[in-house]
Amino acid sequence: MDLLRFSTAGSVDDGKSTLIGRLLYDSKGVFEDQLEAVARSTINRSAGPIDLSLLTDGLRAEREQGITIDVAYRYFATPKRKFIIADTPGHEQYTRNMATGSSTASLAIVLIDARHGALVQSRRHTFIAALLGIPHLVVAVNKMDLVGFSQQRFEEIRADFAPFVEKLGVSAPKFIPLSALWGDNVVEPSQNTPWYSGGTLLDYLETVDVAAEENFSQFRFAVQYVIRPDLNFRGFAGQIAAGSVQVGDVVRCLPAGTESTVKRIFTLHGDLEGAFAPQSVALLLADEIDVSRGDMLVEPSQQPWIRKTFDADLVWMDATPLDLTRPYLVKHTTRSVRSKVAQIHYRVDVNSLEQRPATALQLNEIARVRLACAQPLYLDAYRDFRRTGCFVLIDPQSNATVAAGMVCAEQGAESEVGEDLPRIDRQARAAQFGHRAAIVALRAESPAIQTHLAHLLTSRLFQRGVAAVLLDQDAMTAAPAANSSACGAWLAGRLVDAGQVVVLDIDWTDGGDQAWRSGVAAADWLRIDVGLAEIGDVAADGIAIALDDGAVDGAVRKIVLALADRGLFGASSVVSPGAGI
């Protein structure tokens, strides 16, 4: 008898816990003492004679509020199959619980309230289910009794939701009209839906094919522990993540690359001639090669990707937003390595599935990112190998799990040496540097004061951690071009594109600033006039700074504060008027 793991998903109050309770109750999967306890707890509740949702909602807070907060697992069996159910919460606040509860499921039941149709959380949970690679999807249109078991309403919901599911790449989703409260089409066919002939929910759960999901062709075995009780036994314990292994098979140890032959397959109940995923075994090798925790044994002809840098889909699960400047730990199989989120390619809008730019991730947001690790990992695409294609991100300070990730398709061998990398846009650079790019065009009453201001300002910005560069008249004179202004303007524009703050110290008597502004966005141009207010030469869109008694240092302080007011720096970089620079 095989095993099916499935989870419930959907928006709050769509009836997920009631459906699971009804499934357990009607399939005779509940003991009498459990029913008696639920019946006593049902007093003063409006969910019928027995509130079946209480079979899974066991926390006091869940029963008080009538919602699911944490994932609840239930086990039952029919003559055809064994089942493990993960009842997951529907509130947006607990989306991370839904993601973890569904991570091992082979089938997801997405419930939709027939009165309200598909809501934001319905789409979010369906998207996460598709992201997790759950191969089978049931869309249960619940509470049909509240819409008079209307076939028209059922068809409206299917017509609205089916295109969204199709965009996610989920093949052949099963739509079932049901009433979890009264049991229509859950275990027994309903007399109230003569227009539906697609079978009950339990019929589908018992017959859906899950045997073809396991990958038995490519062997993956992450070593969890080395067992050495005496001199004659040295076994490498772990769970077979994918594939199968036989006594006599040749295996390769990563990262060393050494090979040996499987001598024994040891288990608690005796030796085996062969083992397959997801069995937990201890392998004994014919040769004394160096193998330790975190290493991976694989078939030599079918190795995983060995990567320090890779792309992944990330579900952010922490209240503290993702910080591109902070290090994290990647926990992948039995290895934990230091890493950093190098770039956010895009954030996914779960309503429209549009890809939007982002420089940070908030709680429950989903994005495609690039991770850079300190040591190589042995990776597979999550779509092909769920166990070796998934990982979690851990905050090294709090030891909290902050994100769950799924490895994307192969990027090609060239990505490891830095070629064919995705374009790093200005938003990513601003997030990395902590400030936006700009051209700070200085003008002063004399060339000497202007030069002094430019050098001192560049120094002060550098001390603040700003990626600032000085482009002065000496550089323009040395430029290998007939039109040094055009050459300098082009160079300044490229530096701004690279996230730099360019401080200009040039001769403004030669054509003014029009040549310099022509290739630069207006938002990137910040003209600052120092000590020119009395001669009426202040730019209309610029900043006027007084030069009190020729005090250049005080003028630079004012310039830095003015740049902060214009939003050049991040919020954490703004200096108060009384602070030192």
Number of domains: 4
Largest sheet: 6 strands, mixed
Q: Helices and strands: which structural class? A: alpha+beta
CATH class of the largest domain: Alpha Beta
CATH architecture of the largest domain: 3-Layer(aba) Sandwich
Taking the alpha carbons of the first and last residues, their distance comes to 72 Å
Q: Can you tell me the CATH topology of the largest domain?
A: Rossmann fold
Strand content bin: 25-35%
Overall form: globular
Task: Give the % helix.
Answer: 10-25%
Give the uncertain stretches in residue-range form. 59-65, 412-422, 571-581
Instruction: Please compute the radius of gyration using only Cα atoms.
Output: 31 Å
Number of helical elements: 13
* Strand line-up across the major sheet: 2-3-1-4-5-6
Mean pLDDT: 81
- CATH homologous superfamily placement of the largest domain: P-loop containing nucleotide triphosphate hydrolases
**How many runs of DSSP E, i.e. beta strands?**
28
Could you describe the 3D structure shown?
With 581 residues, the chain is an alpha+beta fold. It is 23% helix and 30% strand. It has 13 helices and 28 strands. The longest helix has 17 residues, at 151-167. It is globular. 37% of the residues are buried.
In short:
Helices cover 23% and strands 30% of the residues. The chain is built from 13 helices and 28 strands.
Task: Please render the helix and strand layout as text.
Blueprint: E1 3-10, H1 16-26, H2 32-41, H3 60-65, E2 72-77, E3 82-87, H4 95-101, E4 107-113, H5 120-131, E5 136-142, H6 151-167, E6 174-177, H7 201-207, E7 220-222, E8 225-230, E9 233-242, E10 244-246, E11 250-254, E12 259-267, E13 270-272, E14 274-276, E15 280-285, E16 296-298, E17 305-316, E18 327-332, E19 335-348, E20 355-356, E21 366-379, E22 390-394, E23 401-407, H8 426-433, E24 438-444, H9 447-463, E25 468-472, H10 473-478, H11 484-497, E26 501-505, H12 514-517, E27 525-530, E28 543-545, H13 552-565
Parallel strand pairs: 1-3, 1-4, 4-5, 5-6, 24-26, 24-27, 25-26, 27-28
Antiparallel strand pairs: 2-3, 7-9, 7-16, 8-9, 9-15, 10-14, 11-12, 11-16, 12-13, 12-15, 17-21, 17-23, 18-19, 18-22, 19-20, 19-21, 22-23
Helix pairs in contact: 9-13
